[in-house]
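Example record

Each entry pairs one chain with its bound ligand, FE3-S4 cluster.
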Amino acid sequence: MYTEEKLMDEARQGEVVMAKSKSTGNRRKLYLESYGCQMNFSDSEIVASILTKEGFVTTRNVEEADLILLNTCSIRDKAEQTVRKRLVGFNIRKKHKPQLMIGLLGCMAERLKAKLLEEEKLVDIVVGPDAYRDLPKLIHHVEGGQKAVNVLLSREETYADINPVRLSGNGITGFISITRGCDNMCSFCVVPFTRGRERSRDPETIVHEARFLFDQGYREVTLLGQNVDSYRWNMSNKGEIKDPDKPTVNFAQLMEMVAQVNPDLRIRFSTSHPKDMTDDVLYVMAQYDNICNYIHLPVQSGHSDVLKKMNRGYTREWYLNRIKAIRRIIPSCAISTDIITGFCGESDEEHAATISLMKEVKYNHAYMFKYSERPKTLAERKYKDDVPEALKSARLQEIIALQGEHSLASNQNMAGKVHRVLVEGYSKRSEEKLRGRNTENAMIVFPKENHKPGDYVNIMVTDCTAATLIGHVV
Ligand code: SAH
Ligand code: SF4
Ligand code: F3S
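Structure tokens for the complex follow.
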């Protein structure tokens, strides 16, 4: 789910929506840039929806913007530094265009509150992830010469009734948020502080959104939550007060409801939590062909003592047992993970345990990070960030190299076989080639013949790199 570093480099920008409208010239223009996880990109689509109703059109061209919004991430220090640099650049622009409004959204807004507005004077508007409905009012304040802040977190807000404006999409694959916030308090993680308490969204609105997307031509939805396995909705009372006697919908049941929208609609989901992922979820995956054989199951560390300090709620043995359950129930399932190196006090032996776990699981893919201490987290208060930077880096390089071997081997395993691929678009290198994914989430590139985005095609894979499979239509 989390590819911040990569996305940060190529921060996606809003497309021009309603560009055909003749009146576009008079409408105020919004330039929206998003950083961080898929949840943030999904939120940007809600923001675009709210502001489109206010008369804004989105633009990819920052030169013509009347309003610049940055939807930001706080997960590691580097993520925040990138945004700060961006804001400094936008403020130079503002010197020549004083009426330009600059706003900070998302996790940095929540974490730093009014700091960037009052102390550093880098922004005019600060809005936290649960307050986007307030944006029109806040923008009016700024137009009236004031500064505007709303960083209230909510126990109920799920934006369930807002139909997102699909921004940077390909029209084939889309995200649907099913929960917001997180109650887990992993000791390294800032998300519970920036996103607030966990809440689930009404399943009917989720199914409705999936059906709507399918009718628009979409062929894949990814259900999003920080911990999708803790999804829970009580049918009796809109989910707010749990009544144990009334039927509830759990994640396995929700996934089944979405899978039944149409057999041609693929379902993915992210992120699964090892402590909460049930066999029921795996059985539903095995039962429906349109639920993809791919699970992102972050391990963070291969040593139980580190996991305990991380407050992850499972041991190495428990995690490996979940992997066994996946292999037993869905033998061909691809598995990816997140790993942190150099967490507080991590010894050579503990690092070696991560290496041995990687060798045991042989992940298809992994996102790997150096530990970055975050203010206010349990780890910041309780443990010393004492693994030297050079050692963190060396450990990271070691696991990256190992994962490289595993990713290549996993792709080589897929060669010589036929894969059902959902075409997502054209290859970045050539208009004559299409690209799409198999159910295991591996990217496959092939000559287009007479196929187009949105088609399902059977591809014989003949060659591969660690990142991509290459093949032809059969
Ligand atoms: N909810 C998801 C992940 C959220 S953050 C889960 O529980 O798995 C995405 C990833 O960023 C995490 O899995 C973790 O590997 C990494 N991460 C989070 N906080 C971090 C920190 N302080 N330093 C380095 N990496 C971190
Ligand atoms: Fe952060 Fe843990 Fe929640 Fe994931 S489950 S968002 S790592 S606190
Ligand atoms: Fe996502 Fe970054 Fe916030 S990973 S939840 S945008 S801190």
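The radius of gyration is 22 Å.
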